[in-house]
Amino acid sequence: VVCLVAYHIFFMLFVWSYWKTIFTLPMNPSKEFHLSYSDKESLEREPRGESQQEVLRRAAKDLPIYTRTMSGAIRYCDRCHLVKPDRCHHCSVCDKCILKMDHHCPWVNNCVGFSNYKFFLLFLAYSLLYCLFIAATDLQYFIKFWTNGLPDTQAKFHIMFLFFAAAMFSVSLSSLFGYHCWLVSKNKSTLEVFRAPIFRHRTDKNGFSLGFSKNLRQVFGDEKKYWLLPVFSSLGDGCSFPTCLVNQDPELASTPGGLNSSSKNENHLFPAKPLRDSQSHLLTDTPSWSETTAKAEKGKVGMSNPALTMENET
């Protein structure tokens, strides 16, 4: 009876999470990231290069973006005509920009991103548990099959096939699930593993990592009662994310962007804009520099918005 109840629970959770992974539409950037009609016209009129980047700088000056292209330019999608939010990428299969895109999964025929990444993780977890449960309950009959302890019927083939299928899927799912658990612990996506995010001064592969506990809450949320259920509970809006770049020494808090004469800290800048309300509580235990101090040092730094100032492309 217990095994039968456990079987149905695993199966229901597996189907539920699989359904949510498939039919949850990936989130696209909000309207504020799309260029206005006048900005689109200006972008089309200007020649490629610094002139276009100046248009994009004006469009992105009030947006919470901190990552750049490899050349240091504003990340812009010329197919969707929008400034890309951090961790957003254009999917060539779906032909649209996906917030916090991890990968396009052919097994679910959908993009795995901010809106359904938790469902995808639960789908892997419950699939693995389901396969392990099937393999464990079928093991005793599989042993009898090899010791000729079963009657010679067609059931022998079914038992052998079921055990091998469950065992092989368990091995493949365990490796995939373990990999994504590692990604969650580091607050990375599959795309960010292959190409680390580029911030203003350098590439930082751990730029979005806040520590194991906070990284876990980024995906599963603050309410632990929802962690094992395929209901959306991830933190944030998918457009802005807290970064470890604000986790600076308290003595550096009085200097905008953490700029000082030490080369050790010159590459770690404070974000020029405050985090959104949905994300800022993750970093309440970390001192951050004030906007008034930034204004006081505006002349020293030589830029009104250091996180959005772009380096000239070579």
TrEMBL record:
GO terms for molecular function: protein-cysteine S-palmitoyltransferase activity. The chain crosses the membrane at residues 6-25, 119-137, 157-179. It is an enzyme of class 2 (transferase). Residues 280-293 have a biased composition (Polar residues). The keyword Hydrolase does not apply. Coiled coil: none annotated. Residues 255-314 are annotated as: Disordered. The keyword Nucleotide-binding does not apply. It comes from the Eukaryota. Its EC number is 2.3.1.225. Keywords: Acyltransferase, Membrane, Transferase, Transmembrane, Transmembrane helix. It catalyses: L-cysteinyl-[protein] + hexadecanoyl-CoA = S-hexadecanoyl-L-cysteinyl-[protein] + CoA. It is found in: Membrane. One of its GO terms (cellular component) is membrane. It holds the Pfam family DHHC. InterPro entries: Palmitoyltrfase_DHHC, PFA4/ZDH16/20/ERF2-like. It is a multi-pass membrane protein. Residues 74-193 form the Palmitoyltransferase DHHC domain. The DHHC domain is required for palmitoyltransferase activity. Belongs to the DHHC palmitoyltransferase family. This is Palmitoyltransferase. It comes from Vireo altiloquus. The gene is Zdhhc2.
